[in-house]
From TrEMBL:
Pfam family, one: MmgE_PrpD_C
High-level lineage: Bacteria, Bacillati, Actinomycetota, Actinomycetes, Mycobacteriales
Span of domain MmgE/PrpD N-terminal: 20-262
Official protein name in the record: Aconitate hydratase
GO BP, sorted A to Z: propionate metabolic process; tricarboxylic acid cycle
Amino acid sequence: MINHEVGSRRSAEVFPIEEHLAYKIAQVAADPVAVPDDTAEMIVNRIIDNAAVSAASVTRRSVTNARLQAQSRPLPGGSTVFGVDGSYAPEWATWANGVAVRELDFHDTFLAAEYSHPGDNIPALIAVGQRVGATGADLLRGLATAYEIQIDLVRGMCLHEHKIDHVAHLGPSVAAGLGTMLGLDVSTIYQAVGQALHLTTATRQSRKGQISSWKAYAPAHAGKIAVEAVDRAMRGEGAPSPIWEGEDGVIAWMLGGPDARYTVPLPARGEPKRAILDSYTKEHSAEYQSQAPIDLARRMRGRIVDLSQIASIVLHTSHHTHYVIGTGSNDPQKFDPKASRETLDHSVMYIFAVALQDGEWDHERSYAPERASRPDTIELWNKISTVEDPEWTSRYHAIDPNEKAFGARAVVTLTSGEVIEDELAVADAHPLGARPFAREQYLAKFTRMADGVVAPAERSRFIEAATGLAELPSGTLTSLNVRVLADVLAGVPETGKGLL
């Protein structure tokens, strides 16, 4: 890896295009390096994972509306939309499938200086690959790049510190991944990356206060914008330049300011793209920093005979967990029994309380309004708080994967004065956890989420196509679509009418 220092530049400075971060990303994307076997295997796992969570979310309102919007843009020889037949404009297929993937906050994650869900790259690359007749090997190469670029940007450039949403790293990664898959030249990819970044920067209010369905739409929007950016760049259109380093660019006015410097690692020429192996998926449908606390609550449950005797619970955890999903956020909505599912998903206090009471976490039952409004849950919920612990913050940002952790130490004080403590550094499903996810677990998650939604024969057909991705010939990427049972879609609640 090569560490690139990135900072704002005055317009009067001599700053060759070869030194622009967007150009260096384009060079990585255009490098025809082979995809290592373990990277390819993990890409297949994440395609299966995305299908699993899409099946679980297919009847939800946000997903239904996005699907209906895509279906109003039919295109012969276009792309598929999850769950249904037909051929649609690739940017709108990206939109619909991106919402389905993101709706339940239930797919992969990478956390470092910034946050990300790199599986958000997959819908765009599959949709465009279907449209252009890409092979399975083309798709593998593109996704290896997309994961690499997003994760490398996340390693080096913090967005949330400046209240910029993390999808600002997704637009460039999708554009770069598409450039690899399509075999575009460095100059074209450079323009597409710049356009994608310019148009996908937004504030973090989408994840603050009363969180709405836009949390699911935000990455789908970034993917759609990136597809459109690549289309324009292929036609010869340019982008604001230099997009990150310009005097009026992203770093100077949206991030750390004219004097800020960031270090972004990128693969050297000929170096394999392996960043996906540093990311991790979710066993539970909740914010990633809640994964270890859920497993910790399940483990501690047997040590507390009577939960009504709990006087307080303090979760000692990282800066991110405390300030984004903990009491450090100062969001009263995180204690509101009538809050949206998206808000409860970002309340580790609620999540720990329910996991402690139920000994499990379910993507539907654990968020049900009647579950959130249970008096004993509300009572316990309000006894839970978080504090930032410098040790957990340090482990969160650790470079050594054996030290990096996203967990917490729980201190439970009973009314008797007895104190029960336990801690868990990483979730059970994490590569270093008690039950690491491998192909078997990804397949089991898909089977569980698709049960009653996708016919057994269709599930088998999809798994065969996904696991044989490297050998799929041109024109067969439509086999990666999953068709949902007709009666499931027929039971989708009616939504509001839009323009089309």
